[in-house]
Write a structure and sequence with these properties.
CATH topology of the largest domain: Butyryl-CoA Dehydrogenase, subunit A, domain 3
Strand content: 5-15%
Number of domains: 4
Distance between the termini: 27 Å
Order of helices and strands: HHHHHHHEEEEEEEEHEEHHHHHHHHHHH
CATH architecture of the largest domain: Up-down Bundle
Shape: globular
Radius of gyration: 25 Å
Largest sheet: 8 strands, mixed
CATH superfamily of the largest domain: Butyryl-CoA Dehydrogenase, subunit A, domain 3
CATH class of the largest domain: Mainly Alpha
Helix content: 55-70%
Number of helices: 19
């Protein structure tokens, strides 16, 4: 990749695949400002003071406790950060709100309640409400006086949200909508005062409504008994001619899908943030345990097998952080651009999130799977004790599993990743045709065996560029071969999505470390280089495997052989001693007694 091809304009959603980013213009955790660091510390202090000492009480669903904790968070300003000042908010940027989601994400069930409240429980009203609705609800929600919840899922409609059966019919006197139906898995449902509920007006117009606790005909079921996040209130909602005032219709009749899907874009990125926050704490707990646990007359942290696990956990977290804040800043910049064009606040942020919906879907998949990996390996390092409720890692293990299901299952988000990319390409919004034709031309030409570029990061940059070519080659060939049937080949779509996720992450961590070296020098960044190079080394193999699985599913004969040869060329990585790199990474955490990157 040459710097001549780099773009200094903000990349559009999906454009990372065909354009090169510049390290100096890539936002990283190291770019947090003084105020952002202060907010981060506030989150940590809140968890230490209010949440960790009460985890068992929270998991026991002690009446009134979770609501009181939400109120306390509101009193400290942790709910109001990204909301407009005119409603009592602090008016901070999207990156800052992402920081709060990440650091409160280490709060187990509390983090779920907070994320649901500040996200799906409040944002629909902020973004789609009338001025009167915003004035009535937003100040009380962001102060913590009231709690919010979101009613979309039904017993027979989960991923197929538009298949909901709940109905809304205008009353004879025209004053109310009468809602009939049932919602399930409603986070904060047991104590919320305000619910955003989706129903079909006249049985077919998917529409959102603001429903208050105490509404006639609106009741809730008992708390669900769940495998994890036990302290998160989760109930079913029942509507039997529930009388919702006409002024509580949210947005436009028949346009509820805009609310549901736009809110999910933001929620997916913030779920990734929370998952990484939880993963960081789980890894720190695991490092501490490995140092104190002795076997064969020495700490188990001395053993190479344990060091490998600790290092791999750290690598995946670090990479996730790199991709997360790169994307959060893009959303920030898009929001600012739209505001400058005269768009109101709500349309600007929704526009930013929609622009990067592809990246948000990828982040949701990766972040949730990183947390699952970290807590699973954490239990393994704890051994038998990891299976005991006395050790927090067992709670982290149970709490993690839900993240791959809600905000759209990871399977749905993988399918969306490629579906949205192809639709943008076909709609002229994303120019994939030119780069894809360029890759095909390169495959037909004699490889360039000229002298290797020996500049720092030249090999890593070339590898990332080649991984992008592998994606363009595999996806282009799949579209040509499968044509209109490609939507039914979900396995192929998910394989290519996995190639994209690995490559986006690889580029993100490379940009972060390149920027660090530019600022601090190579000598001060050795462990970061170890993390980046280990991830890229493994990513090449993962992209190769996913690529082969996709190609072998739709190609055969000479076409198959040619594409597989191209895949092998594009996923070739330089030999690298990842064992020693992982040991260095682990040794640093053992020295610091925590995740420290």
């Amino acid at each position: 990749m040459s710097t001549e091809t780099a773009t200094r304009a903000a990349l559009k959603g999906g454009e990372w695949l065909i354009k090169e980013s510049i390290p100096s213009e890539t936002f990283t955790r190291e770019d947090f400002g003084e105020e952002q660091l202060m907010i981060r510390d506030m989150c940590n202090q809140f968890l230490e003071a209010e949440i960790y000492p009460n985890l068992d009480r929270i998991d026991d669903l002690e009446p009134g406790l979770m609501k009181s904790l939400v109120t306390k968070a509101g009193e400290q300003g942790l709910l109001a950060t990204s909301f407009p000042e005119e409603y009592g908010g602090l008016g901070k940027d999207f990156v800052t709100s992402t920081i709060i989601n990440e650091y409160l994400g280490a709060g187990h069930s509390f983090s779920v309640a907070i994320a649901a409240h500040t996200g799906i429980g409040t944002l629909p009203i902020l973004y789609f409400g009338t001025p009167e609705q915003k004035e009535k609800y937003i100040p009380k929600l962001i102060s913590g006086e009231w709690a919010g919840a979101y009613g979309l899922t039904e017993p027979n409609s989960g991923s197929d949200a538009l298949g909901a059966k709940t109905t809304a019919k205008l009353s004879d006197d025209g004053k109310y909508y009468l809602l009939n139906g049932q919602k399930c898995w409603i986070t904060n449902g047991g104590f919320a005062q305000v619910y955003t509920v989706f129903a079909k007006v006249d049985g077919d117009k998917f529409t959102a409504f603001i429903v208050e606790r105490g509404t006639e005909g609106f009741t809730q079921g008992p708390e669900e008994h769940k495998m994890g996040i036990k302290g998160s209130s989760t109930v079913q909602l029942y509507f039997q001619d529930a009388k919702v005032p006409v002024e509580n219709l949210l947005g436009e009749i028949g346009k509820g899908h805009k609310i549901a899907f736009n809110i999910l874009n933001i929620g997916r990125l913030k779920l990734c943030a929370a998952a990484l926050g939880g993963a960081r704490r789980a890894l720190t707990n695991t490092v501490e345990y490995a140092i104190t646990r002795e076997q064969f007359k020495q700490p188990i942290s001395n053993f190479g097998a344990i060091k490998h696990k600790l290092a791999e956990m750290a690598i995946r977290i670090y990479v996730g952080e790199s991709a997360l804040y790169r994307t959060a800043k893009w959303i920030d910049e898009k929001e600012a651009e739209l505001v400058a064009e005269g768009k109101p606040f709500n349309e600007a942020l929704l526009g930013g999130a929609e622009e990067y919906a592809i990246e948000c879907a990828m982040l949701k998949v990766y972040g949730s799977e990183v947390l699952d990996f970290v807590v699973d390996e954490g239990v393994q390092v704890h051994g038998g004790n990891g299976f005991s409720a006395e050790y927090n890692i067992s709670r982290a293990y149970r709490d993690s599993r839900i993240n791959r299901i809600y905000e759209g299952t990871n399977e749905i988000n993988r399918l969306l990743t490629l579906d949205m990319t192809l639709k943008r390409a076909m709609g002229g919004r994303l120019d994939l045709m030119g780069p894809a034709m360029g890759v095909q031309k390169e495959l037909m030409s004699i490889p360039d065996f000229g002298a290797e570029d020996e500049a720092l990061f030249a090999k890593e940059r070339k590898l990332v560029a080649n991984l992008k070519k592998a994606i363009l080659m595999a996806s282009g060939a799949a579209v040509q071969k499968l044509m209109m049937k490609i939507d039914t080949e979900q396995e192929v779509l998910m394989n290519i999505a996995d190639m994209a996720i690995e490559t986006f992450n690889a580029e993100s961590v490379l940009l972060r470390v390149m920027k660090m070296v530019e600022q601090k020098g190579e000598a001060s960044s050795q462990l970061n280089l170890d993390i980046m190079r280990t991830y890229l080394y493994d990513a090449a193999d993962k992209v190769n495997k996913s690529g082969k699985d996709a190609i072998n599913a739709f190609a055969d004969g000479d076409e198959q052989r040619m594409i597989l040869m191209g895949l092998k060329r594009f996923t070739k990585a330089e030999p690298f001693n990842s064992k020693d790199a992982r040991r260095r990474i682990a040794d640093k955490m053992i020295e610091e007694k925590k995740y420290c990157f």
